[in-house]
Hints:
Elements: E1 5-9, E2 33-37, H1 39-42, H2 47-57, H3 73-76, E3 95-97, H4 99-105, E4 110-114, H5 124-140, E5 147-151, H6 155-167, E6 171-176, H7 182-190, E7 194-198, H8 202-212, E8 218-220, H9 226-232, H10 234-242, E9 250-254, H11 259-273, E10 282-288, H12 293-299, H13 326-335, E11 339-343, H14 345-356, H15 364-379, E12 388-392, H16 400-407, H17 429-439
Parallel strand pairs: 4-12, 5-6, 5-8, 6-7, 9-10, 9-12, 10-11
Antiparallel strand pairs: 1-2, 3-4
Helix pairs in contact: 5-6, 5-9, 6-7, 9-11, 10-11, 11-13, 14-15
Amino acid sequence: MAYHAWFSCFDGCDVRYDLTDVVYRCETCGGLLDVVHDQEALTNRSGADWRELFENRWMRQEWPYGSGVWGKLEWVYPAINPENIVSFAEGGTNLMWAEHLGTQLGVPQLWVKMCGNTHTGSFKDLGMTVLVSAVRQMIAEGKPVRAVACASTGDTSAAVSAYCAAAGIPSLVFLPRGRISPAQLVQPMANGAIVISLDTDFDGCMRIVQEVTEDGSIYLANSMNSLRIEGQKTISVEITQQLGWDPPDFVIVPGGNLGNIYALAQGFDMMLSLGLIDERPRLVCAQAQNANPLYTAFRKGWASYEPQAAKPTLASAIQIGAPVSIHRAIRALKAYDGIVEQATEDELMNAAARADRTGMFCCPHTGVALAALEKLVTKGTITEEHRVVVVSTAHGLKFSGTKAAYHADLLDEVSARHQNRPVETAADVDTVRRTLDTLLA
């Protein structure tokens, strides 16, 4: 049976667009779009059959199923021509049992989904393989797309530039000047993107890129584009598959533009509706205190939401005060008995450093999620009986400067409780031995 998917209005307007249409919002109400799948067709397989299919494809070499995303092709973009898929075998990342850290926190069943262990070093690859493949399909069908563009705080620009470079499609990235790490800045430069550095924050870059892409000749790659969500929702499927198709009790993810929390819900929704799982986890979105519009709305009981001017945070990728997917996130959290927690600069950096002491190398955004975990354990919301997954969104090497500054105790608002500095001694073996005897006593 053929499988089909299309764009539809998130707010329920009676509209339908092809996935190759250059459209990002409902032409009736102006709301965001969702990718909707033909559920009746998908139910021609049982939940057990879908599980078996995904297991048989898992990280194999048969094109394009070796990708963690394209191994779920029927759930992502079923009608795409496989020749147009652009993939770096993204996904399939380690679900690490964080035994040492979990024991310290009183959560022995703690796992960390290492989404930073992918081609460009962040979970953004999962959505970008779908979006850039879709653009390649559009171009093959004669759509006049000249380039792909995004606003970014770092990771999205890396993914856009890499996938577009592989596809032979020009890429444009709009970055907030001086607000991303050098490692993140060099990625799109190395991949040949046109890098526009703007004297504004992410929200300002987002406004400009939406205007630049209005005429349709440049395709918008930010997460308001729901093709990105289709790739990112496979995180939920991977986590569940790696846990033997038994979903965890809690999934905690850092949130900035908030497409990720909605994507997680979309993935679990599909597994529930198609019979792969029987229960849903509770979802937790963690925000930096300096950029916390979702947390503020949550504390008000979802009575109201107001965008804010985000303050600087070391978790720079989530320094977003007017998240595009705010209403998507709220709907997801309501459906999943969700929680929103926040972390100060001190809390997020020390949570990351504590995890590093158990063998990880966490980005500051993962530190936000880990700090939220610590708070929920302290409150008794999460206990030793719960199975918890923290989604690590990017590789810590992208933030080596920030981490070095932490251990040098040079960060404002942060007291480095897990500081570890080099020990300087004379180049004399006896001095070294005496020093080691002291340190190892």
